[in-house]
């Protein structure tokens, strides 16, 4: 009998210190091709553990649906509901994608608004379940994607063991950040939860042999994920892209090029939103004029180590923060996480930071619009703290001699973190939406003005205050809605809404259409986002003025579109009949063509990278690295 080869000391040491090598033997990574069948319990546990985490997370957040049709009168939520209700009704009832809003600012280019969901993939929830329930379902979907993305990021990209990945997923699932932003109405910040999945798609896997491919299926998928953030997530998207770009740089130049390609695909797919947005910014910038006016972080240490906190904090309880230091010391393979944790903390502090990194970003055009760095970067402080804690658990487990010490330690940390957070925060979800929906009133379309008072000073009835969703349900247009965009106001309102709910008639109001020159009568018989119909009776050639803001893209049949003091007007010949006017945004048409071509390229590219054959002859199946090391170290 031949003697067995001596044990490779390096391989044995690696197995004793590298938890990824050991854990792969019990829980192979999700994308490994195993040369031999695994035991049944192992095959069931591999998908079963993340499935159990997702089920527990779904049960945790279901109080959002306790009253499916209930709303919140938080002014941020009413704006979101108004946007989704307008999209829902214009697409399903009017059969048109709204390119402007006749209800807001007398023709505000709504598709250019950063928070407006112009045919975002998440709009499918709005179309199928309605604007109220659809928004809630979108929140739950984003939340579950964030939980799964954290699992995949820890397990596949960072090559941590299943226990550490479970801890990271449950810590993110139950953190105080999610209920805080929902309670405050900051719906766009929910899109931060797409960051872990997006990072796992863009960054390379630790166990991938050979150079990192510049383009593959996950990168193509990342363009759709990032595009969803860009179409529906406001400035949160650029914060994610900035941090992800820094992470890619730390992983190497090929990963950075890969990230740049993904961003190029994303920009092409989202062009139908980006081109109108850039056009709007040319005429009305949202930039902060002075850096001194930037809001600084207000959250205290308790808001991080406690179980609940405000929107500019990340409540995790004390245990995850205690694990950060061991993660910094023991995670030598994950130095990038420590660097990104420090960078995120500096960006979060903004002007209060000893090294004001945010000031450098603030000088750039898009980041120049950020007025509160804590709100845009606190998520990354919490995310990297959770990941560093997972690294600490993975490293500590590898140093303990008992084989099950690592999983037990991770389970204790997961329960010790998630259980107190869940008990403290679950009730918040049920308290967000408690008021019955507002009744919809059918009445002739008119426009009104409202003083620039905060909703906190409103003393009138709930169903009359100047919130966008309230006005939408009543069919009123609000002429001075600017939302930080300084667009000219030329509309003559029918009346003014006072802070006590009473109204005052405007003596200058001439109707929604009138004869500007000549003689006769004109009325608006029907109006929607992109179309309006006029009924006219003119005794001589005249110009009919419309109580809507003029913009390039209007055409009328019959008649010639002209501009009168910033308002839409139509030059008509004498006679009676109807006039049909249509609005078509040129930036939207340009962006739509770019998006269509980009979609074709991305789909073809995704199909090509999936079916292309491997170069050269079929390689011999290679055992996973952990199995090879185990064979070398076994006596």
Can you put this structure into words, describing what you see?
The protein is of the alpha+beta class and 635 residues long. Helices cover 50% and strands 10% of the residues. It has 22 helices and 12 strands. It has helices spanning 9-17, 19-26, 40-61, 75-92, 123-129, 131-157, 162-174, 177-184, 195-202, 217-232, 236-251, 253-269, 271-283, 302-305, 318-330, 335-349, 357-362, 373-399, 405-430, 468-474, 586-611, 625-633; strands at 446-449, 476-478, 495-497, 503-505, 513-517, 520-527, 531-538, 542-549, 554-557, 560-564, 567-572, 575-583. Helix 20 (468-474) links the parallel strand 1 (446-449) and strand 2 (476-478). The longest helix has 27 residues, at 131-157. The two termini are 14 Å apart.
Which descriptors apply to this entry?
single chain, 635 residues, alpha+beta, four-stranded mixed β-sheet, four-stranded antiparallel β-sheet, 22 helices, 12 strands, elongated
Largest sheet features: 4 strands, mixed
End-to-end distance, in Å? 14 Å
Nearest-integer average pLDDT: 83
Strand order of the largest sheet: 2-1-3-4
Structural class: alpha+beta
What are the low-pLDDT stretches, counting only 5+ consecutive residues below 50?
Answer: 10-35, 614-635
Number of strands: 12
Tally of DSSP helical segments: 22
Assign an overall shape: elongated
Percent helix among the residues?
40-55%
Strand content: 5-15%
Integer-rounded radius of gyration: 29 Å
